[in-house]
Amino acid sequence: MIKLIECPRDAMQGIPHFIDTAIKAAYINQLSEVGFDTIDFGSFVNPKAVPQMKDTEEVLSLLDLHHSKSKLLAIVANLRGAEDAGHFPEIDYLGFPLSISETFQQRNTNKSISEAFNELEEIQNLCEVKGKILVTYLSMGFGNPYGEEYSPEMVLNFVERLDQLGVKIISLSDTIGVANPALITELFETQIQAFPNIEFGAHLHSTRETIGEKVLAGLKGGCTRFDGALNGYGGCPMAKDDLVGNMATEVMVETLEKAGHDLKLNKRELKEAMKLTQFVFTEV
C-alpha cells in the first residue's frame, strides 16, 4: 500500500512573510479531508531558527481531527522539542533530521553527527515511553554540495546504526535535488533488502519535470512511502536552484495512479486544497 505524507510544514517554513495561524489551521484541516496517510503539520523547534513555526501549538489547538484518517507528524531538533511535542496525544510521529553531511548537520541543528546520534537515541527512548513513533530523516542521503565524502555504503552504515537504536521509519532525503533515478532505485533496493523490519520513505526534492521519473525509480526500488507538498512548495534554502522544491503531490498522485495504484484519496477535497494553496502561500 502506498503512503503519501503531505508536508505543509516543509512548504510553509521557508515562506518569508508570516502566515496567519488561523490560515495555517484552515489549510491543514482541508488537507486532513483528502485522505493522506500522514500530515507533517508543524515543528517544535527554536522560533528564532524557524519563526514560521512558532505557532505550532496554537495551530494544533485549531485542528479538527475528529473525522480525519490522517496521522500527524511534527519535526523536532532536540530532546526539549521532543518533550514538548510528547505532551500532545494528537501527534503520532516525531520527525528528527539526521544528516550524512557533517556540515549540514551543524547548519541544520547546530550539532555534530555524533551529538545528533546521542540526541536521537534519547528521543527514540522518549517516543517509546510516550507512545510516539520516531521518523528519522536521513538528509543529504543522495549527495551534498560541500565536497564531503559520500557513498551508498555510508547510507547503509547510518541505517545500521539507526536499526540498532530501534528506529522503525527512515526517510531517505534528497535535500538539494541531486538524486537521479538510478541512485534512487539502488539506495532503496539496498536498504530494503538489508533491513526488512524498517519502513523506508522518500523525501525528495525535484524540479517539476523530473518528479515522475523519481517516483517510479523509488517504486522500482521497493519504496511505498513518499513525502510531498501541493504545488511543490518548500525546499532547502541551501539549494542554488530555487526551482528545486518539494515533490509536487499532485504530480506524484498522477504518476502513481497511472502506475496502477489506488491511493484512496478524495479528489474533490484535493481540488479544494489545491485552490487554497494560492491563498496560503501568496502574500496579500
From TrEMBL:
tRNA-binding is among the record's keywords: no
Keyword rRNA-binding carried by entry: no
Pfam families: HMGL-like
Protein name, as recorded: Hydroxymethylglutaryl-CoA lyase
GO function term, MF aspect, one: hydroxymethylglutaryl-CoA lyase activity
InterPro entries hit by this protein: Aldolase_TIM, HMGL, PYR_CT
GO biological process: ketone body biosynthetic process; L-leucine catabolic process
Domain Pyruvate carboxyltransferase positions: 1-271
Top-rank taxon: Bacteria
Keywords: Lyase, Metal-binding
Family: Belongs to the HMG-CoA lyase family.
